[in-house]
Design goal:
The protein has 331 residues and is α+β, with helices and mostly antiparallel strands. The chain has 8 helices and 10 strands. β5 and β6 form a beta hairpin.
């Protein structure tokens, strides 16, 4: 409605100017204000209530006229409590001829309480001029396992009487069952830990036995393991795609580790984004590793299978080196 009112005002001004200049034969050019071409935008989140560490999607929608270009301002800021992991966009045309572009921004929630996603800036250009509009703020609620208060907790039970006699057979039977459960639990736990270390840690080539890794490193190591097991690095025709997959895994890891936006960034832009968040030695490792990938991805170089596996091993080592638990263990 604001856009229609502005266009109506502009047309009325043009008509008045035409009538005023009808006697002299001159014409007056009326420029429609830039606000008349501004897109209609809104933001929403789904789900709006989630548990700590859960994933939500922020939807940003912009409706604009033909000839108008819109985009999200980089980097996209959702607040310190949200970790952006992915962003996609889709377009469709409404019945009135306007184009609707919807961005879907996936993020993890790492803070508790009532949070507010700040207004998200959308830039646009129309008739050679640029402008910016902001979405509405979006409230969300992040809860823990039990919440702030659990009304379902029952009151304390009164004390009960203990046995007045000692039945050694009953205690021996229960002790045997408990001992058997303990032995089984220890064996299963050792097997599970051994399998996790062999698959995700030992193949790095770094002595990190006993070091604990967080979810960010575990997810990246699991993705690299899937790439290795797929055999894509051993096939000449598919090896370039394997390099692209490894680079995407490391970019997503760096974004989660240092809380920076990595979507659609070049190698240089990524290193600039890490300048304020990562130590210089980490940036040097990342720059060297990404340069090796870019030579294969964009430079036309054909790497061998052995070289591709060395690049994968170096990616694992970089992840373990930048994992907080591993860094503390090394110190």
């Amino acid at each position: 409605m604001r856009r229609i009112a502005l266009v109506g005002i502009a047309l009325a001004c043009a008509a008045s100017a035409a009538r005023a200049d009808s006697g002299s034969g001159s014409a007056t050019i009326i420029q429609v204000p830039l606000d008349a071409s501004a897109p209609e935008i809104k933001a929403a989140a789904s789900p709006s209530a989630l548990a700590l560490g859960g994933k939500l999607t922020v939807f940003v929608t912009a409706a604009f006229d033909p000839g108008v270009e819109v985009n999200l301002r980089e980097p996209v800021e959702l607040g310190g409590g949200l970790e952006v992991i992915r962003r996609t966009a889709t377009d469709h045309t409404r019945a009135d001829g306007r184009t609707v572009r919807e961005w879907q921004i996936e993020a993890y929630a790492w803070d508790l309480g009532d949070l507010m996603i700040p207004p998200i800036a959308v830039t646009f250009t129309a008739a050679g001029h640029a402008g910016q509009v902001e979405t509405n703020p979006v409230p969300i609620r992040v809860t823990g396992v039990l919440g702030e208060k659990d009304e379902t907790l029952r009151p304390s039970a009164p004390p009960i009487a203990l046995f007045h006699y000692f039945d050694w057979q009953w205690w021996a039977w229960r002790g045997g069952i408990a001992l058997l459960a303990l032995v089984v639990g220890v064996l299963v736990g050792r097997r599970f830990r051994r399998r996790r270390v062999v698959q995700l840690v030992t193949s790095v080539g770094v002595p990190v036995r006993g070091a604990r890794i967080d979810l960010t490193s575990e997810r990246a190591l699991a993705q690299l393991l899937a790439i290795e097991r797929s055999g894509v690095l051993d096939r000449d025709d598919d090896r370039k795609g394997g390099y692209m997959d490894m680079a995407e895994v490391l970019r997503e890891y760096l974004g989660g580790r240092y809380r920076v936006t990595v979507v659609d960034l070049t190698t240089g832009e990524l290193l600039n984004a890490l300048a304020a968040a990562a130590p210089s030695e980490v940036r040097e490792m990342v720059a060297t590793w990404l340069e090796r990938c870019d030579v294969v991805k964009y430079g036309g170089s054909r790497a061998s299978g052995d070289e591709a596996h060395r690049v994968l091993t170096d990616a694992r080592a970089m992840i373990m080196t930048t994992t907080p638990a591993a860094m503390k263990a090394a110190a």
